[in-house]
Amino acid sequence: MTPSANQTYILTLSCPDRRGLVHAVSGFLLERGGNIEEAAQFNDHATGLFFMRVQFACGAHDYASLQADWAAFAQPYQMRWGLHAAAAPMKTVLMVSREGHCLNDLLFRHKSGLLRLDIRAIISNHRDFYQLAASYDVPFHHIPVTAATKPQAEARQLEIIESEGAELVVLARYMQVLSDAMCTRLEGRAINIHHSFLPSFKGARPYRQAHERGVKLIGATAHYVTAALDEGPIIEQDVARADHTDTVEDLAARGRDTESLVLARAVKWHSEHRVLLNGHKTVVFR
């Protein structure tokens, strides 16, 4: 009998490496009637850590019993792990300022069935995209931000994020620097798109910085948000060619497509539980 979608799960884990881990995980699933559909693992010899992602079908046990059994199994191995229903779309909040290309791309991909998301809200410090949000039937929250009102604005943003149960927050060209406190609250579940190939050209106006240096490649970087500006673990990057005839405006126009593609990849991989944190780096099981 073919398992239904709601009986398919994704297990992610990381732990100190040791012999027999793959055998132990597959044995656990076999004993509970699980059928492995997809599996990937990685040994980081530099850190001595083992990473694994397994998609499996199981009709003999429900989510609660699998979770309880796995928690007891994982403890002796010192595992950091997650167990997710594969069919469940990830509850997501999008944040944007006045550059709408990444927002528009994500909304279109989601509407087209290319991203397994449940987009619960759009938050912006400007009103520019309230009509775009309405066209996709997504609630739009306009929360202005000034230096004086930033604490209150972030408190309201967090209230929306938590009330919607957001598992993912995407800064789709949201151009306000988040406070350290907010970064801590969103650790591991907020993705930013930076319009340069990090670690080059951090901070503001990276296309102008790139133009002044006469680079031959421009890029975009999707990374997890941390309190250190543009320093979070990198999920995905890509580049586009540049030459001496390009103006700053040319670079910015060409870079928009790269930014949209890079962010969409990162969001897709995160929503499919393919990204595992490895210190200041990531392991991405594509």
Write the layout of secondary structure elements.
Blueprint: E1 8-16, H1 21-31, E2 35-44, E3 49-57, H2 63-74, E4 80-85, E5 90-96, H3 101-111, E6 117-124, H4 130-135, E7 140-142, H5 150-163, E8 168-171, H6 180-185, E9 190-194, H7 206-213, E10 217-224, E11 234-241, H8 248-271, E12 275-278, E13 281-284
Parallel strand pairs: 5-6, 5-8, 6-7, 8-9
Antiparallel strand pairs: 1-3, 1-4, 2-3, 9-10, 10-11, 12-13
Catalogue the unreliable spans: 1-6
Percentage of β-strand residues: 25-35%
Largest beta sheet, briefly?
Answer: 7 strands, mixed
Q: So what's the CATH class of the largest domain?
A: Alpha Beta
CATH superfamily membership of the largest domain: Formyl transferase, N-terminal domain
Radius of gyration: 21 Å
Specify the structural class: alpha/beta
> Would you tell me the overall average pLDDT?
94
**Total number of helices:** 8
Provide the CATH topology of the largest domain.
Rossmann fold
Within the largest sheet, what's the order of strands? 7-6-5-8-9-10-11
The CATH architecture of the largest domain comes to: 3-Layer(aba) Sandwich
Assign an overall shape: globular
Helix content: 25-40%
Order of helices and strands: EHEEHEEHEHEHEHEHEEHEE
Write down how many β-strands occur, each being a DSSP E stretch of 2 or more residues: 13
Total domain units? 2
Straight-line N-to-C gap: 28 Å
Short description:
By secondary structure, this protein is α/β, with parallel strands linked by helices. The protein has helices at residues 21-31, 63-74, 101-111, 130-135, 150-163, 180-185, 206-213, 248-271, and strands spanning 8-16, 35-44, 49-57, 80-85, 90-96, 117-124, 140-142, 168-171, 190-194, 217-224, 234-241, 275-278, 281-284. The active site is at 230.
